[in-house]
Design brief:
Blueprint: E1 7-8, H1 9-15, E2 25-26, E3 28-30, E4 40-43, H2 56-61, E5 66-70, E6 83-87, H3 90-102, H4 118-130, H5 148-153
Parallel strand pairs: 3-4, 4-5, 5-6
Antiparallel strand pairs: 1-2
Length: 163
Amino acid sequence: MTLTHELDSKWISEALSLNERSSVFFQSITTDSRKVTTGSLFVAITGEKMDGHSFITSAIEMGATGIVAEKGKIPTGLPKHIVIFEVPNTTEAYRQISKAWRNRFSIPVVCVAGSVGKTTTKEILAAILTGKYQHVVKTQGSQNGYLGIPMTLMDITPETEIA
């Protein structure tokens, strides 16, 4: 997910309970190596079909300056300027970062739960809320799982009025 503002490596370290001494600013955070831009923080998620750790090198080639990766899965010989956040589980780390990010903002957040109709209900609520608020953040499509929720939370900006 791409942000329109910067994230500091010290703040990320704090969110992950790590000790980072340097201060590097990231322009965006993404779990998709194809969406990496200059200054991105790439989170290498291990999925059912793909392992983001296989794309760390290409993410760096595309301009990532930081990597969140699982212990034992970090390629050797990475450039010295790359900030590496070594964690036990990247999905959980991404969720921790998004939780800390959400806590920066005191805005209302509406959660829709259930087994049927979540996406439709979310779209109706977002349409209604857009009538009152100028800056509404909502999940993209049906991204409402372990990765979709953090992606949505990372879309919150200082301009966001409700999510």
